[in-house]
Amino acid sequence: MATFASSSRSPPIIDMTLLNDLYDEIERNPPALEARRLLIQQCMDAGWVDAARDAIRAYLNLDPYDEEILSMEEILFEDDPTRSQSHHIPTPADPPPRPSPPSVPGDIEEAQLELLRGYNALRTKAAKLLRETCLVRDLAKKHEPQVPVPEKTGKGISLMNLFKNQLFSVAKKNEASISPRFEVHIQNLTDITDGRISSVVRVRQPGSAQAVARAMEKNPERAVDIAIGDLEDMARWLRSQSGRPDNDAVREALVKRVGMLSSALSNGMKRNASLALMHVEHELLHRTYVCEETMYGDKVADIPRARFLATEDGYPWDMEELAQAIQSNGGVMRNPLSRQMFTTEDIRTILQHPLGKGLAALGVEQGKLSKGVRPKTIEELEKMSVVLLADMSEDQMESRHVLDQFLGYVATLPGSEQKALDKLRVPAKDSHSGQAFDTTIGEAVRDAKANVVCIHKIGDFLQQAARHLKRSK
Q1: How far is residue 175's CA from residue 169's CA, in Å, rounded to a whole number?
Q2: What angle do CA 333, 334, 339 make, to 5 degrees?
Q3: Residue 237, SS3?
Q4: Is 18 or 69 the better-scoring residue by pLDDT?
Q5: Of 448, 468, 469, whose CA–CA distance to 458 is shortest?
Q6: Bridge partners (DSSP) listed for residue 179
Q7: Where do runs of H (alpha helix) occur along 149-243?
Q8: CB of 236 within 8 A of CB of 210?
Q9: pLDDT digit string, tens, across residues 288-344
Q10: Which candidate, 413, 409, 403, places its Cα nearest to that of 455?
Q11: Model confidence at 181, in pLDDT bands (50, 70, 90)?
Q12: How confident is the model at residue 165 (pLDDT cuts 50, 70, 90)?
């Protein structure tokens, strides 16, 4: 724990050269968190309370979740009655609110003109400051103390010459420390005047992944938004670096960042990091998906965050449309476009989405329907599937007979079991094409009876349905 220098002992020796180096490092290589941390420690060791407070405020504005600096803050501000009124430093339990996304102005041309006027005004002010800074630098050089080098006499160096020599050394040291700062300011002002503003205004480097993970754990309701904000900051910082990486390089770095966040999160919170990456790919990286429009013809890019979902097969969804499609399909978790079953992870994500929670009840209902089919009915399905698959005759008379027999058998079943056969959708695929079947047992039998679908395809489906019902028992 950092402490102040005690006043009962001799005053501490302050290394002014180190302090100047720290200030130069902070100015030249922002955010320079390690240099700021060392500066805080130096100020506390020297007993400079106000300077330490200012340094801590500046540090926490960059990384508000550093526990060590927060503990130093508690020590420094415990006796400060103006702390609550004058300064509020966010804590992990109180993350800084993110600004709402900017809205498009009604008059876009007027907004563009206003931006252009502001840009020109900034360059004009920078040019004025550049001239004044150069004048101040030249004036400082003109009035530098000219102290002659002491001359040796037969009796050695006089006291007056020794004093002049000390003044000369101090002046040279001050010149060496001030001159580089002038040059940095002049270079920055020159870049702004010439229009190279991005080379001066640098993007803040994101904080540590552990600090972001702690903020997510403290505020689980906003965990996804906190992670999205961190990934957006990371993407902007990466793009501000030299070389300007493309979207693929940025995505690769964001995937590594998500891995770091996931390793620092508890098991129940890990999925929030993956969801954040999904939204950043959609909104910031403009990922290319399997389709560019939703099922209702809307642009994928226009889907709001609250309704957007991307599954592992590369399809983007408006959750309102997807929930309606799954509900109309009896709760079967199948991709309405590709007709393939969703993966286990996709099903979990769909059911945990606020617009997909109602689909869980449909899944439970499907499970109850599969258990409502008696073993005798499953045997009849197996027998019928064998006949349908083996029938190669032209009139398919044997298949017609077995279909009639099964429909007569179904008519003798209780209403609940007949409902189960009409509503239950089983996961099955065409053995030849691999295309998923999208029908129920009752619909398939009636289609075969009406000669709407090939009896061999129906036999393939019923055989898989019988196996599924056996496993469900």
Answers
A1: 10
A2: 175
A3: helix
A4: 69
A5: 448
A6: none
A7: 159-193, 209-218, 223-240
A8: no
A9: 999 999 999 999 999 999 999 999 999 999 999 999 988 887 777 888 888 787 888
A10: 403
A11: low
A12: low
Burial of 29 from C-beta contacts in 10 A (0-12 / 13-18 / 19+): exposed
Rounded to 5, what percent of the chain is helix, strand, coil?
65, 5, 35
What's the Rg (C-alpha) of the chain?
Answer: 37
Q: Do residues 160 and 111 make contact, with C-beta atoms less than 8 angstroms apart?
A: no
Tokens of 85: 């009124």
3 state DSSP class of 317: strand
Q: Do the Cβ atoms of 295 and 325 come closer than 8 Å?
A: yes
Structure tokens at 245: 């990486």
Contacts for 367 with CB less than 8 Å, ≥ 6 apart: 472
Structure confidence at residue 7 (pLDDT): 42
d(CA 273, CA 259): 8
Amino acid 94: pLDDT: 44
Amino acid, single-letter form, for residue 169: S
Single-letter residue type at 95: P
Distance between CA atoms of residues 451 and 400, nearest Å? 10
Q: Are 27 and 184 in contact (CB under 8 A)?
A: yes
* Closest by Cα among 310, 367, 305, 391 to 343: 310
Check if the beta carbon of residue 316 is closer than 8 Å to that of residue 350: no
- Residues 6 or more apart whose CB falls under 8 angstroms from that of 61 comprise none
- Matching residue, tokens 């929930």: 323
Banded pLDDT at 80 (limits 50, 70, 90) = low
Q: What residues have CB less than 8 Å from 287, skipping those under 6 apart?
A: 281, 310
Tokens of 23: 């200030």
| Beta-bridge partners for 156 | 153
* Residue 97 neighbours by CB under 8 Å, 6+ apart: none
Q: Could you report the per-residue pLDDT of 43-68, keeping only the tens digit for each?
A: 887 778 878 888 888 888 877 777 77
pLDDT of residue 67: 78
